[in-house]
């Protein structure tokens, strides 16, 4: 029973403070293994790859994964619901009062101040994933992490070639998965 309370508490907090959606949950998810043994920090990078190629937000998929690891299907349900509960509560409250205050300069200013914080959270998440997968994940297989960074830049460059931009996103997901498998990332 204690594990369900811990799952609820941890994922409710993540859902409450990860303003900005799925990518904003990544720093919190990377810090969670320091307090609980539900998953390893390296699992976040793996789960991010899986989450990006499956339906559903990153945070939801990771909460379900961690909850399932901790307490099976009931744990997955508790963790997932705990993550979305703050958003539901906040949205219901905001929907009731936002119409009144939408033109208020303090409300506009508050939202303007939140944007840089969300950008910082997402930048932290991106750096964490880069350092976990590309920089630390090289393990000397290619002589240097610089080679992997260059391959990643090449991949993103190809995605922006005018003729290749027309490809369906699923093609890029499959290409990225194949690249990760071939390079053993």
Which characteristics define this entry?
185 residues, mainly alpha, globular
Structure description:
- The longest helix has 44 residues.
- Helix content is 77%, strand content 0%.
- It is mainly alpha-helical and 185 residues long.
What order do the SSEs take from the amino end to the carboxyl end, as H and E? Answer: HHHHHHH
Beta-strand content estimate: under 5%
> How far from one another are the termini?
37 Å
> What's the gyration radius in Å?
19 Å
Biggest pleated-sheet summary: none
Shape by Cα distribution:
globular
Residue ranges: pLDDT <50 for 5 or more in a row? Answer: none
Mean pLDDT, to the nearest integer, reads 81
Content-based structural category: mainly alpha
Helix content: over 70%
Write the layout of secondary structure elements.
Blueprint lengths: L1 H16 L4 H10 L9 H12 L5 H44 L3 H31 L9 H15 L9 H14 L3
Give a summary of the structure in a few sentences.
With 185 residues, the protein is mainly alpha-helical.
């Amino acid at each position: 029973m204690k594990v369900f309370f811990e799952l609820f508490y941890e994922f409710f907090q993540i859902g409450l403070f990860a303003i900005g959606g799925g990518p904003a949950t990544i720093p919190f998810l990377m810090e969670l293994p320091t307090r609980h043994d539900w998953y390893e920090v390296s699992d976040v990078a793996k789960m991010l790859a899986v989450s990006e190629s499956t339906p559903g937000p990153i945070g939801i998929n990771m909460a379900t994964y961690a909850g399932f690891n901790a307490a099976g299907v009931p744990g997955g349900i508790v963790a997932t619901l705990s993550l979305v509960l703050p958003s539901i509560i906040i949205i219901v409250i905001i929907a009731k009062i936002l119409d009144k205050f939408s033109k208020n300069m303090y409300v506009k200013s508050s939202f303007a101040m939140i944007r840089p914080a969300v950008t910082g959270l997402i930048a932290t998440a991106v750096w964490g994933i880069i350092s976990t997968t590309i920089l630390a994940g090289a393990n000397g297989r290619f002589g240097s992490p610089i080679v992997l960074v260059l391959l990643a830049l090449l991949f993103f460059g190809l995605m922006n070639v005018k003729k290749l931009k027309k490809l369906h996103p699923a093609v890029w997901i499959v290409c990225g998965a194949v690249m990760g498998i071939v390079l053993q990332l």
